[in-house]
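pinging the channel bc i need a second pair of eyes. not urgent but kinda urgent?? the chain im working w is below, pasted from the shared doc
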Amino acid sequence: MKKLKRYQYERYAILCRQAYPADFDHTQYGFDPAGRRDIIDRWGRTIIRVLWGEQNEAIVVFKGSQNLWDWLLNFACFPQKLPGRQKPYRVHWGYHFLLEQKSKIATNRYAEAFPSLSASQEIDYLQAADAQHFQDESLYQQIRSTLLPLIKNGKRISFTGHSSGGAMAVLTVERLGNEFPDAIKRVVTFGQPAAGFWSFRQAYSYHHCTYRICCDLDIVTFLPAIPLMHWHVGKMLWLHNEKIYDNISTPVRLYKSLVSWVLRPITYHYMHKYIRNKDYFDKH
């Protein structure tokens, strides 16, 4: 597995953060004006953004939970059986449901965001993925319909998401990879709960390019809280006490978090804490 570079981490982290505000100008992040497709959930909110530009990469960004109903789906952790490449596997029912929901409305968010651009400026594969065709499709089908012409044009696809959006990302990757195994470039998730059972972990084909970022004692990353029932995929990178730990076990992670919490008042006395805050003085 290749290391996740800092600029890659920052790019995906910023895109995940910017997925939540309604006002989002994707051109500021190197994507083409016509290189965007927003996918709407059953509540009429943007939940997924597909972004692309001149580079040989398109990025699918998944939002996390946005209301109480979405949060409750985290606890709908009974198994959903899906067909795999060699044998069936089981995933978290709630996150599968999120991908199978249909949009409340079918809308061309590209046209809303850039009304001044003429039809001649649209790319052929954007027209082929016209949002009007999405009305009767699930979110997963809309993702596939949007990505299909991009893949045919030689782009490789990266996926990123925060919270339940990360779980949706890995489920989408394995499912899409059944059809287009060479199209998957990278998966980077933040604060992601487990998306599947042991059979899904065994079936998952992209451990080598999947990075699961966890920060300190983020409780969502331990969900669903049923030991040895749900399993994560890919490589975990745990950000804790200004260090990065690779694939640290859950008991060790809990122990280190507890020790850090108990000792935190003492650690604030160390000089490196004062050095870390030196930039504050530039503002005074």
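so Residues 106-131 have pLDDT under 50 and may be disordered. and The radius of gyration is 20 Å. — does that match what u expected or am i reading it wrong
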